[in-house]
Amino acid sequence: xxxxxxxxxxxxxxxxxxxxxxxxxxxxxxxxxxxxxxxxxxxxxxxxxxxxxxxxxxxxxxxxxxxxxxxxxxxxxxxxxxxxxxxxxxxxxxxxxxxxxxxxxxxxxxxxxxxxxxxxxxxxxxxxxxxxxxxxxxxxxxxxxxxxxxxxxxxxxxxxxxxxxxxxxxxxxxxxxxxxxxxxxxxxxxxxxxxxxxxxxxxxxxxxxxxxxxxxxxxxxxxxxxxxxxxxxxxxxxxxxxxxxxxxxxxxxxxxxxxxxxxxxxxxxxxxxxxxxxxxxxxxxxxxxxxxxxxxxxxxxxxxxxxxxxxxxxxxxxxxxxxxxxxxxxxxxxxxxxxxxxxxxxxxxxxxxxxxxxxxxxxxxxxxxxxxxxxxxxxxxxxxxxxxxxxxxxxxxxx
Length: 399
Ligand code: CTP
Fold this sequence. Notes:
Blueprint: E1 2-7, H1 13-25, E2 29-34, H2 38-41, H3 44-51, H4 67-74, E3 77-83, H5 85-93, H6 99-106, E4 111-115, H7 119-123, H8 125-136, E5 140-141, E6 145-148, E7 154-158, H9 162-175, E8 183-188, E9 192-194, E10 200-202, H10 208-219, E11 223-228, E12 239-243, H11 247-256, E13 263-266, E14 273-274, E15 295-296, H12 300-307, E16 312-319, H13 323-333, E17 338-343, E18 355-362, E19 367-374, H14 375-397
Parallel strand pairs: 1-2, 1-3, 3-4, 4-5, 8-11, 8-13, 11-12, 13-16, 16-17
Antiparallel strand pairs: 6-7, 9-10, 14-15, 17-18, 18-19
Helix pairs in contact: 1-3, 1-9, 4-6, 5-8, 10-14
The structure holds cytidine-5'-triphosphate (CTP).
């Protein structure tokens, strides 16, 4: 594969030479691009010697004024290591004041960013907000390690191990556009079941996991139909969003859009009960106590399990205990191919968090644990495993 290796101006710039060497060893073609500050730490000649190609450095000292465009078009993946706080800010805000940042704007393929900086700079709200922008853009952030830093501090900020960065690059390159031509139907967020015109019952759910799945599938080339309960999230780029409120509306829209979908992911936290007959007027506080008699909502996932055909069906299980058993039970009772189980109730992962830690129960009997990671990364891992699972199921079927 043809890879751009962008090198920022940090003390870890020398480790980038090892990344270039490992990528070359894996058979990739590497085009090194250095910022001006990077050249204070390591010479362009080092990268030229390792990659067998001229290192690109300056926007105005190149053969053609539009070289950044041709370099962007020729290469398939862009990795930036080390990415300093300043470089991350420039990428996040689209500033294009040197060759690397101009190239970044002209580049349309997958981007891997490996930050390295002082711990306080890493923790700063500005840096974290910029990183979140890059994550939401679909870029892979290779989290820095914790340890002794050149500045004398100990904490997060040390460039991840070159081997780990190369692994992230390879994983990203494999993903590419592996959902090209697929239609993925995703549900997200809670549903709201009205009790009267002003009150409702609902489930805790921010919709972040479902939206991350939609972003990931779209980035991998899928047509994505996202059926969303009420959430406070911006619609992901390139995704068809259908807004619903109740479980009944969600069911209707899911069935309406099922035909073209090859993969269905039910990440929504559907309310299990509703009032069948909702009063037309606001209920007045006349009695000291009141009880509600609720009926079950339609179980959309179970219904899909009965009519899925050869679609891949992925359900979710948000549990407070017995995660593994519950994920497996739901896999079987709702005839899913995969159930993504996560523990909820704590604040670290789950509902409102940007991170998650999940187990995947597969219809092959396997149970995989995905360690804590940003929801966007978890979303990609779910699709990685879903595609592998589909291949395994087709091979077993002889399809
Ligand atoms: N689900 C659904 N329709 C419902 C309830 C749940 O489609 N009426 C789906 C959810 O989108 C999720 C999965 O079923 O993918 C599991 O939801 P959960 O509420 O955990 O499961 P329940 O069947 O309600 O199981 P329990 O209440 O026993 O935990």
